[in-house]
Amino acid sequence: MKKFLFFAVVIFVLLILIGAGCVSFEVxxxxxAVNEGPxxxxxxxxxxxxxxxxxxxxxxxxxxxxxxxRDEPWAIEMKYPPKYKTVFDTYGWPHALIHxxxxxxxxxxxxxxxxxxxxxxxxxxxxxxxAFIARHPNGKNYITVDYNxxxxxxxxxxxxxxxxxxxxxxxx
Length: 172
Prior knowledge:
Layout: H1 2-36, H2 52-55, E1 67-71, E2 76-80, E3 84-87, E4 96-102, E5 111-116, H3 121-126, E6 132-135, E7 142-147, H4 155-164, E8 168-169
Antiparallel strand pairs: 1-2, 2-8, 3-4, 4-5, 5-7, 6-7
């Protein structure tokens, strides 16, 4: 009889503990629902026909989430990934507007934007052409964007081609 009573008490205690745990989870779920608010699902018209090309998700913009470099006096703008920081440094760079350096411990500039009086001035200084050059709308200057390639990482070239493709003048 003592064994039966012992087992009955143990089972009773286990049932109480399990019940308390369920109530606890229910209270947590209820609090979570109150704090986060109701989940609103989009309305769907099941009778509406959808063209096959709309079913496939549209590709995301490759420059989504990028920073924007703007230079108001020169009326230029260019997007760049957040892995870069911009550094204003004209010491030894008399034509520089801005430099781009990788935040992850890089020791040198990856790229720079510069201004020049003549189209051939960049090549005269560096002995090669820039990755990008455009005549400024003021008709007096040229803007160059150039970057340092990485022979071990061809993705750098692809990345900077995409970055340069976002370059634009913000004023006529």
